[in-house]
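Model the whole thing, not chain by chain.
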Amino acid sequence: MSFEVPIGPQHPIHVEPLMLRLKVDGELIVDVDVDVSYLHRGIEKGLEVRTYLQGLYLAERICGICNCAHSLCYCLNVEQLLGKEAPPRAKYLRVIVEELSRMHSHLLWLGHYFHTLGFETLFMYFWRDRERVMDMLELITGNRVTTAYNTIGGVRRDITPEAESKLRKALDYLEERMRYYDKVIDSEPTILARTQGVGLLKPEDAIKLGTVGPHLRASGVKHDVRLDDPYSGHDEIPFNVVTWDTCDCYGRVKVRMGEVRECISMIRYALDHLPSGDYRLKIPPFFKAPEGESLSRVEAPRGELVHYSISNGGTNPYRYKVRTPTLANILSVTYMLKSRGDYEVYIADVPPILGGIDPCICCTARVVITDEARKKRRILTLSDLERYSQEKGARRR
Amino acid sequence: MDEKEILQKIVERFGEKVLDAKVIGARRITVRVPPEAYKEVVSYVAHDLGLSFLSCLSGIDRGENLEVVAHIGYSICVLVRTSIPKDKPEIESITDVLPAASIYEREAHDLLGIVFKGHPNLKRIFLPEDWPKGVYPLRKDYAPSHPKPLRGGGGE
């Protein structure tokens, strides 16, 4: 007897809420269908009817958590169209804020991930430490979440010496904490049992399915936009591309842990080598971009973000295309959720696998179980789904 | 391989089929081909040249025609583009060459009305279920009606 289990569709903090329709045989998932339509806001059309500067504010609001990546990608795109480049100091400041927001995103994800596995203490710890990062973002940019830091031609504020010293202190604190978390993650049997061997994605499949970001690197593939297609000072600031070759959810945790540590060292390097000079170019609010096209790519916390624009010489873009990393990762989720041969996926494994690509849908997901044979519907709430996952964690303990 | 070598290889391999090819910036190449050669060129760039990764697939309304652009590559990005007439917007799907295209082709189908022949599951992806048939929001002839402001918009 097979059931259909819809998971979704809404999540208040994520750019793309998903609806997953799982076909299950008992607890085993045999087929998946994905619906990503719930938050289509027509932003691409909206960008066509706005001037370039107005578009910046809209582009920044595509996603709440990676707003910094979107505004950076938009600015790089328009600067490319104009044939201009941000001054060196602006590039380094952009990297500092970009990496801080990557840390904030990864820490949020790590906390949330352990929460879905039933490890509440780590959830509290990670989110407490993330608060330090949020404070730093507020100190530097003036805003906690939607930073509004990048602008066409540079950044909007310079960093003060006071903010710099506070930032260095926060980095020391976070580095110490990350060492502790590494120890916990490697020694805690619950985490190991719930992540190792769950959600396998082999490197060749990951490439074939167009996977991006930490999710791709956890399959042992060394691709990172900051390395492959460097932008905004990433060709000067050294960093290691963190990869892991276990191809499972454990690898995804380890890659993001490693990336937070890399962020810390990149920010330190950027602070040590911060060039002097202007932090922005003077660009008038209304301008016409020359005819042409430009493609900019940024490594957002969730992976490669693509902005592609076409200008016909007017004050607005003729066409503006955005490809977000989650859309690229969806195909791999449907692939990982299907049981094949020895590889078995259970309903309780949905939160770790889905969470592995960092869409954080499962946390507010509402599940309806439809028993087709008996024509009965049973609604599982978020807490039921989490209880499923946490009970499985407890059994493994 | 740098941009020029890749460009040269594509031009050598496809000769007259390449209508236009140039480097448009650091690590950016654009290649225009007729619709018949589109899939073949995509396959050559992705597999024979080893760029392997479909970064994005965009559709553009160019007035009389619709343009399909496949962005291929991790580092160097090759934009393979082709134009198809608006009254018969059909093109071969590249999902069997690059499986990642399936979701992007659904997107272009939904928002621009491009029909990808051979796509295994070409159904609606972003627009609501009750969206009228034959209305494609990213086409230039679609003018959205502006919603009335909630307050202060007159008449209250």
